[in-house]
# Entry
Amino acid sequence: MQPPAGTPLIIQSDASLLLDVHDPGFEEARAELTAFAELEKSPEHMHTYRLSPLSLWNAASAGLSADHVLGVLDRYGRYPTPENVRFFVTDTISRFGKIGLHATDEPNRLFLDVPDRAIREELINNKRVAPLIEPTDQDGRAGFTVALYDRGTIKQELTQIGYPVRDEAPLKEGDPLTVALRDTTLSGGLFHVRDYQVEAATAFHGAGLPGTGFGTIVLPCGAGKTIVGMKVMEIIATNTLILTTNVAAVHQWIDELVDKTMLSPDDIGEYTGDHKIIRPVTVATYQILVWRRDRTEDFPHFQLFRERNWGLIIYDEVHLLPAPVFRVTAEIQAVRRLGLTATLVREDSRESDVFSLVGPKRYDVPWKELEQKGWIAEANCYEIRIDLPESLKLDYAVADKRGKFRIASENPRKVDIAKQIIENHREDSIMVIGQYLDQLGELARELDVPIITGKTPNAQREEIYGRFRRGELHVIVVSKVANFAIDLPDASVAIQVSGTFGSRQEEAQRLGRILRPKARNSSFYSVISRYTTEETFAANRQKFLTEQGYKYHIEIWDSDG
# Structure
């Protein structure tokens, strides 16, 4: 008996969700699920999602109720939702806000409002939580006081034991700074903040109400996350510290701020290895913050967080926030914090720390939705599978796991495949992206094009990027330094010849390099050695793109195409 059309979802009692790709309701259901479930597997016929506490708490923080989540499950479910799953959804979402954090009359203490006596007893008897709290009551409400300094730590600990805190304690204003957006950019183009960018900034700010002013905005690469950051700066009008991934990204932020706001260059400082200028708006790299002479010393540049009375901190590419910086974000919980990212997936599994310390997801929009509206380019994704040369098969067979991955990644036949793809795209601007420098160096020599790696001086990098943007270069070869925050609006083809072990965030970032709106569709090629571990890792990298609605076309090529 055929299941009724429009019911693509099978909800299982272990909180996993199977989504039938072939059902007519697949696209609608997938768009709904991404708001409150995590994608685990995405093979050809059934995609597997999972409901988790963190996915449901992010949904709750974005305003989704248990009734909404259950309504989606009921609407698309092929069979009735199991009762234990209904309970799990209702109970998990209800935990968001069972504990509140508020101001007290004491300047250096906060009040942890815990109405439920059983939860209070649980906290008193928790070895990690108990040292942070002191029993009290405030205005007849039972709970605990917490040191202001421990505001972030207590939120981390309570999230870990299943009680995400609704933080409604006040945020400081910071020193005022007017940040007005231009109608016409300094370079002469018309400038307009798109509707979804305004919605994202507004969702973050929340009209300044308690419990808002901190959180994460999830938007595709190419959708203008920098513009969202500038809109938030305009709304909040305060001294702002912006942290990003590398020096090229610092310069991009500064260029965008000068081009699209009324800020003068004298208002903006660069804090990197080359310059340490602190101004009302300061843009710094994560690398300089976590630099120290040796592992026994403190991080000397953490003082940047206290150099001015910041009223806003923007964490660009927040999914890459280095673990040591979480220590500072725990301390400065009174400052408004905006995380910007294309994916909340972290390879170190510290998503819960982003949730607790930077803030929950405030806004998310599916990539395909923006593509359909023309805000990002339509992309075609291809996985090209090729055989290893006979001469490497024995080496591959006897290598350890890491060695196998490297041999597969550096398959010399990939050079010929890259040449064939470039030949097929003579009218496009092409980036060849990879992980291993020897492989990339050979590609650059064979193609007779410039190469950019972590060792390329910043001035030379920006000169090459500039020539590429202006169309003076048709092809460039880049290492993983190009994964993040590189503005290449004219790139329409990316050829990935090697990547990090199964990194979903990397796949998202690399695709994002070619998603800026343009007249022609974009193409993303991933070249994989057939019958090797590279196939397994590639399948994991595809999860994120599949979650966003992209389909991979898998083709088998030999060295002759």
